[in-house]
Amino acid sequence: MKRIKKGDEVVVNCGKDKGRRGTVLEVRGERVLVEGLNIARKHVRPDPNRGVGGGIQDQEMHLHISNVNLYNPQAGKGDRVGFKFLEQNGVRRKVRYFKSDGEVIDA
């Protein structure tokens, strides 16, 4: 189980987008793609066969997973994530929780 999953709301904790929030679009190994953050400008050559015009395009780039924290709505800021096991009806399941207040994320 990963600490950050697709669809989570995260806060960037370092770099040019420090303090900004966004939704995780993709998790690939140790890197995450966050919607609207870490924008890079890419120069694209025109390709008439595919109907692509040339120019400069903005493109979202991946961030390392250590540079984002999961957003805690109760605290209103990014928070660290831990794991614990909950026992329900004789079944143990692993869940994520916020380290600051112990609130379970995966209900």
SSE arrangement:
Layout: E1 9-12, E2 21-28, E3 31-34, E4 39-44, E5 55-60, E6 63-64, E7 68-72, E8 77-79, E9 81-88, E10 91-98
Antiparallel strand pairs: 1-2, 1-7, 2-3, 3-6, 4-5, 7-8, 9-10
**How many independent structural domains?**
1
Broad CATH class: Mainly Beta
Q: What's the architecture, going by CATH?
A: Roll
Taking all residues together, what is the mean pLDDT?
92
For this structure, the CATH topology is SH3 type barrels
User: What is the count of β-strands?
Assistant: 10
Total number of helices:
0
Overall description:
There is one protein chain. By secondary structure, this protein is mainly beta. It has a single domain, classed as SH3 type barrels (Roll), CATH 2.30.30. It has strands at 9-12, 21-28, 31-34, 39-44, 55-60, 63-64, 68-72, 77-79, 81-88, 91-98. A six-stranded antiparallel sheet has the order 6-3-2-1-7-8, with no helix packed on it. Strands 4-5 form a two-stranded antiparallel sheet. The radius of gyration is 18 Å and the shape is elongated. The two termini are 15 Å apart. The model has no long low-confidence stretch (mean pLDDT 92).
